[in-house]
Amino acid sequence: MAEAHQAVGFQFTVRPDGVDLKLSQEVIKNIYLSGVTAWKKRAIQFKNGVLAGVYPASPSSWLIVVIAMMSSLYIHVDPSLGMINAIKDNLPCRDYMSVQTRAVLSAILFATGLWLFLIYLLRYTLKALLSYHEWIFESHGKMSSSTKVWLSLVKMFSGRRPLLYSFQASLPRLPVPSVDDTIHRYLESVRPLLDSQQYNQMEVLASEFKASMATQLQRYLILKSWWATNYVSDWWEEYIYLRGRTPIMVNSNFYIMVRQIVSTLGTVPMCSTQMERMFNTTRIPGIETDIVQHLTDRKHLVVYHRGRFFHVWLYTGGRHLLPSELETQFQRILNDTSEPQPGELKLAALTAGNRYALGVNKVSLDAIESAAFFLALDDEPQGYEPAKTNSLDSYAKSLLHGKCYDRWFDKSFTLISYPNGKMGVNVEHSWADAPIVGHMWEYVAATDCFHLGYTEEGHCKGDVNKGLPYPTRLQWQIPKECQDVIEASYLSAKQIADDVDFHGYLFNEFGKGLIKKCRTSPDAFIQLALQLAQFRDQGVFCLTYESSMTRMFRDGRTETVRSCTSEAVEFVRAMEDASATNAQRFALFRKAADKHQNMYRLAMTGSGIDRHLFCLYIVSKYLGVDSPFLKKVLSEPWKLSTSQTPQQQLNLVDINKFPKYVSAGGGFGPVADDGYGVSYIIIGENLITFHISSKFSSPDTDSYRFGQNIRKAMIDIQALFKTENDKKIVENAKRVPLENGKKYI
User: Fold this and answer.
1) Residue 724's pLDDT is what?
2) Which of the residues 242, 323, 325, 536 has the least number of beta carbons within 10 Å of its own beta carbon?
3) Bigger pLDDT: 254 vs 258
């Protein structure tokens, strides 16, 4: 067999006159090339480490400073104000050096010290500049003079050609808000959700908390904010994700159909820490807590197909496999007719149910956990088909949970490929948030379609190395008792998956283009539509979660925007009140939209509510003190959990020319048993896709019904902007003041 010959590195036979040793030149060549590649990688990593370490300066700038100092010696000018002479007089072993050697060495040492000082000065200057966030609170399309000056300074101090991690040391730390501000914003956020008695009780709890332990807890947080790079992220990863003992499938993992990324001014750098663990990363289950295991320089992936696990090398001859060679390897797997080993078919269900410490076949298990990522080759086609009812629903459920045993939910991500060419990813959440994987996937999809390309027959371009070693089956010996555990985990996971009521809805009545013409934020528009849809669906308002990012800070992850504001409630009630006029509704919409935008900006700039309260709660637990206020806050259910998946790398794909390459975004499972999870993506100018999830077991929710309520809410709000008297409505809204004690204008 061809693979057997390729696996042999050398051959020998024993003869009467000794050992006849025959080395395989092909294998020796590959070993040599692999070694060269490894050393090249080390050299590149060292180079990038140096470049990022001295940024925003460059290594060549050191030489310039040294030459300047050396030149000063010859013109008898001392820019060091005597420091070079002081260094020269205190050099060790100076008796063994000539005067000229000591002078040159002293100048080099001083120049190096000056160069390092200038690097830190530039770095802290840039950090101070990046701590300015007033630009984000300015109206869209308008930029103040101070922001223009700030933007110019950021560009000037940012250097040229930064690498991925160049700005890490220059990013500011996430600030700790004051306790008074956080509690004030919290009480403001729950006011529309509580009656007078409930709100007064919450005020009492908050006052008792401020008067008793708040100051002590805050001191510890401030200390941590100066000692650690981020006072939230490590505790968030550990306590929200890794210590959870419930299944991560549906409850934590999310899926992405193609692309998403967070946008900023384009000049403001974002933290790249999460990208470090994109590949070669696995969540390893433990008894009380899991760990995130990240390895380096792994050269294989593991492929799952029809119940079998295959080990596939990603390198040959010291280089990556070409796309045509990867196609060959995957086709070999598809052509393999072998059957799964006992217990192998549903083995991955152990990552879908309750958290188990896996103890099966260490070698094969290590191959999965150390792989670059996990690839699932599915048999059933998926994807959005306009003529096929519920095709998007099926696509999303396949990405979110599949068959409960055909994704390795503990891997950083599982890449899923369908026989009709559609793809997607299922992502483990602890190591990173959606924009990180979305950024990668957006780049991969655009590169595959527009740079690598395919032949007319649909094959990858390029020649194929016929001598590639075949993919190898992972071997398993799974005892009966372990197979019983696998089956139990599968049944538990299947119960969760079967309970997911998912509806994907493509809203194409209008999109970002029309919303922006109305001079309002698309996100605020949609969030208010979700509030209106929620009230029409449930008859009550609820605590609403919208995810925001904090990656403008070092090691930043997410923050919560509490979208159900008093202003949003007033607007929704006006929409449902037949006696309210369009002018009143329009004015209340503007007020609610402005409030939402301001809250989103506060969350992005480190003045959110929930992460601060979460960390105060963690400190209280470490100190062994009980806070009824914090306990109450942390136990409140998010019945409506929402997230936008914005697009940024539009330069990669012209969606007007290539609309079929536009993705429907991604989504997640419901957070509350009786609530909704809603993810949405604004695609181009005329399309918004909603991913809606809930549970069949809840008699109060219905994902399809909620999608229809969203549609009606979007159209009803848009109607406020297109009435015949729309100009008069706008002018009246600006002139008519709100009266005390009145609900409307």
Assistant:
1) 39
2) 323
3) 254
Q: What does the chain come to in residues?
A: 745
Cβ 546 vs Cβ 430: under 8 Å: no
Nearby residues of 303 by Cβ (< 8 Å), 6 or more positions away: 309, 310, 312, 330, 333, 375, 376, 377, 471
Closest to 637 in 3D by CA, of 679, 595, 688, 698: 698
C-alpha distances in Å from residue 308, one per residue of 23, 302, 367, 379, 471: 34, 10, 14, 13, 11
Q: What is the CA radius of gyration of the chain?
A: 30
Cβ-contact 301, 312 below 8 angstroms: yes
pLDDT tens digits for range 623-680: 999 999 999 999 999 999 999 986 655 555 666 666 566 667 899 999 999 999 999 9
CATH code for the part of the protein at 179-244+499-735: 3.30.559.10
Here the tokens at position 589 are 């919409």
| 459: helix, strand or coil | coil
Q: Which residues, 6 or more positions from 18, have their beta carbon under 8 angstroms from its beta carbon?
A: none
Catalytic residue among 305, 429, 439, 596: 429
Asked whether the bond before 175 is cis by omega within 30 degrees of 0, the reply is no
Structure tokens at 357: 């410490």
Q: What is the pLDDT of residue 732?
A: 60
- Estimate the crossing angle of helix 179-190 against helix 610-623, to 10 degrees: 120
Average pLDDT over residues 503-530: 92
- Read off the amino acid at residue 660: K
- Residue 2, number of CB atoms within 10 A of its CB: 11
381 class by beta-carbon count within 10 Å (0-12 exposed, 13-18 middle, 19+ buried): middle
Write out pLDDT tens, residues 211-256: 999 999 999 999 999 999 999 999 999 999 999 999 999 999 999 9
Q: One-letter amino acid identity for 582?
A: N
Phi, psi dihedrals of residue 519, rounded to the nearest 5°: 60, 50
pTM, entire model: 0.87
Strand, coil or helix: 374: strand
Known catalytic membership, residue 311: no
How far CA 67 is from CA of 107, 114, 116, 159, in Å, comes to 9, 13, 15, 21
Assess contact for 14 and 25: CB atoms under 8 A: no
Helix axes 726-735, 582-604, angle to 10 degrees: 70
Q: Which residue has the tokens 């999109």?
A: 511
Cβ burial of 303 (10 Å; 0-12, 13-18, 19+) is: buried
Residue pLDDT, tens place only, 692-703: 999 999 999 999
Task: Please state which architecture CATH assigns to domain 273-498.
Answer: 2-Layer Sandwich (3.30)
Q: State the amino acid at position 651 in one-letter form.
A: N
What residues contact residue 31 under an 8 Å CB cut-off, 6+ apart?
A: 9
Give the residue ranges of DSSP H helices in 92-163.
99-130, 145-157
Rounded CA separation 310/695 (Å) = 35
Pick from 553, 672, 653, 584: nearest CA to 251: 672
Closest-CA residue to 301 (of 293, 290, 291, 313)? 313
According to the 3-state scheme, what is the secondary structure of 664-716? CCEEECCCCCCCEEEEEEEECCCEEEEEEEEECCCCCCCHHHHHHHHHHHHHH
Sorted by sequence, the CB contacts under 8 Å of residue 249 that are 6+ apart come out as 351, 352, 353, 400, 401, 404, 407, 409, 493, 496, 497
Say yes or no to pLDDT of 477 above 70. Answer: yes
